[in-house]
Design brief:
Helix content: 25-40%
Order of helices and strands: HEEEEEHEEHEEEEEEHEHHHHH
Radius of gyration: 25 Å
CATH topology of the largest domain: Immunoglobulin-like
Strand content: 15-25%
Number of helices: 9
Largest sheet: 5 strands, antiparallel
Number of strands: 14
Number of domains: 2
Length: 313
């Protein structure tokens, strides 16, 4: 049975940019050669690669892991910061997603990290909390407040001692994924539905990914089940969603049926995508399928549920 494929700065005034670039902290920082941050790595569907550009083989139901394996030169770090023990510090790895507003972080005691054989920082956000792009960064901070330290040595908990260069990964840059975003409906003032499909099929020559967008409500109690492919109920929820998407897209196409007569559509256009959908699910051309729908909508609904295998095995 055919299935739908599941996906994927604020500008400062010039003077302030100069100030940020020339950041001066009121305490000693770690020497740049005291920490070798290395590259971020990303793992999806059993594949692990250096994190750069577009993330391959990811969609909103696929588990994803970001890893960083920094190396610390203990002597240089302590000498440059004025501290006397790595145990006073924590190393923090962060993944931020501006599209959903989520921020994922993992932290480890620096001394424990230094003595560990693996020395890996891993972030495993739920797929439902990511969309469009993710920003990765890491830093070392003071783990607790300190008394009786020299004036230029960090003493406040959370004081930043070192930081990596942030990188941004695109999550929707490759593959024929259904255009989807996981967002908070509450923050947008929308009703508490589990999903909402936005579409404009009035220009079928345009790219499908610009004409159609599925929004998953991250506030809904079933959202994580829907987006987590391993959940026992995910298959049933996705089958209902898939049926609803096909129903809405064909209803939208019916409003412009006179525009969907041609068959030689541009590649990846709305017309080509809906033509492929009609052939794959129903074995008919889009024109014929819309004709059958117009003759008997009740019979068409039965056909739709059967061909999309709604709630099937």
């Amino acid at each position: 049975m055919p299935r739908l494929t599941w996906p994927s700065a604020r500008t400062l005034p010039w003077g302030l940019e100069r100030m940020v670039a020339a950041r001066v902290l009121p305490h000693l920082e770690a020497a740049t050669d005291s920490i070798e941050w290395g590259s971020w790595w990303v793992s999806t569907q059993g594949s692990r690669s250096i994190a750069e550009g577009n993330v391959q083989n990811w969609d909103y139901s696929t588990a994803i892991t970001f890893e960083l394996q920094p190396a610390v030169d203990k002597d240089v770090f302590l000498e440059s910061t004025g501290l006397d023990d790595l145990d006073l510090c924590e190393i923090v790895a962060i993944a931020e997603c501006a599209a959903t507003g989520y921020r994922h972080a993992t932290r480890h005691n620096l001394a424990e990290m230094f003595s560990s054989s693996e020395k890996v920082l891993a972030i495993e956000p739920s797929p439902s909390t990511l969309a469009q792009s993710v920003r990765l960064m890491a830093h070392v901070v003071l783990a607790r407040n300190l008394d009786r330290v020299p004036n230029n040595v960090a003493s406040r908990r959370g004081a930043r001692l070192a930081q990596s260069t942030p990188i941004t990964l695109q999550l929707e840059g490759d593959g024929s994924r259904f255009p989807t975003e996981a967002v908070s409906f509450r923050s947008l003032g929308l009703d508490e539905a589990l999903w909402s499909l936005r579409y404009d099929l009035s220009q079928p020559e345009e790219m499908f990914t610009t004409a159609v967008r599925l929004f998953i409500n991250t506030d809904h109690p079933r959202a994580e089940q829907l987006l987590d492919g391993s959940h026992p109920e995910a298959t049933l929820i996705k089958s209902a969603l898939e049926t609803d998407i096909v129903r809405q897209l064909l209803a939208g196409a019916a409003e412009f049926s006179d525009l969907f007569i041609r068959r030689d559509w541009p590649e990846a256009s709305t017309g080509e995508t809906l033509e492929s959908l009609a052939e794959s699910f129903f074995g008919h051309s889009l024109e014929e399928l819309l004709r059958r729908r117009s003759l008997d909508l009740i019979e068409f609904e039965r056909l739709l549920q059967a061909r999309t295998d709604m709630f099937g095995a």
